[in-house]
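Handoff note, outgoing to incoming analyst
You'll be picking up this chain. Sequence as last confirmed:
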Amino acid sequence: MPLITRDEVLVPADVPAQARETYIDNYLKATQNTGRLMLYACDQKIEHLNDDFYGDGIHEADADPQHLFEIGDQGICGILAGQRGLIAAYANDYPDNNYLVKMNSKTHLVKTDQDDPYSPQLYSFQAVMDLINNGVNVVGIGYTIYLGSEYESQMMAEAGELISEAHQAGLIAVLWIYPRGKAVGDEKDAHLIAGAAGAALCLGADFVKVNPPAGDENETSAEKLKQAALASGRTGLVCAGGSTVDPETFLTQLWEQIHVGGAAGNATGRNIHQRSLEEASLLTKAISAITLGDYSVEDALAVFNGEKEFILP
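Most recent structure output, in case you need it:
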């Protein structure tokens, strides 16, 4: 796909003049100069504890957190997203990765029938700036909101303030927004997901990560995603990757989300890091070939199989 120029980056009006060039730098880094986001999600060590890193069907290398960073280093990603402590522990050894600091997290131990989900902010925005001041290549922040939870107001307030602080510093902001809680009847309802995408726009996010809606006999998931892509406006919409599936299925879903549903990229975790280093790195290149290079599914599969090379434009 064609590269975008600095003049084509839509800088939000809450980015001050002195941070404008920094914001453009970070936006172009995160999107590899394309305007689309390939987000490599590595925040599950809190979210899912060790369930995503050890067990049947998971490569043994994934038990070591360094595996996440080796994949980012050897593969092709826009940003590697993780909690502050995780990034701080490994970033000096992997300085070329673009990092996004996840500002909140919760485990999956407390179920919705026990209490509505609440993911509180874990540290101050200054902690992010401290990483940057220490030379870590942080380009943005992320935050999860559970829309429909009885605690949604706290999460939206925290997210809104953090996005303002991020833009003041010239960083991009990505919201994870998932409708969830006792008030939510169907988490995969396309109309509700579109509402979540619109909420992300109103909070000032540069990108929003949502779960793809469920398809039905009338429309596929990708066709239903169009409503959310429209609702998000100038906030780029990306879909969560979900549980690990075979590469062809995953790459086909991704292509359809972008070219049918109007998504502005992808956000993938388990589908990448539960594989061996070689396979995971190849999959990041195949995903980036579709997301950043507009490759067909067939050509992206050839990249994954080592039959074709993808080089960033």
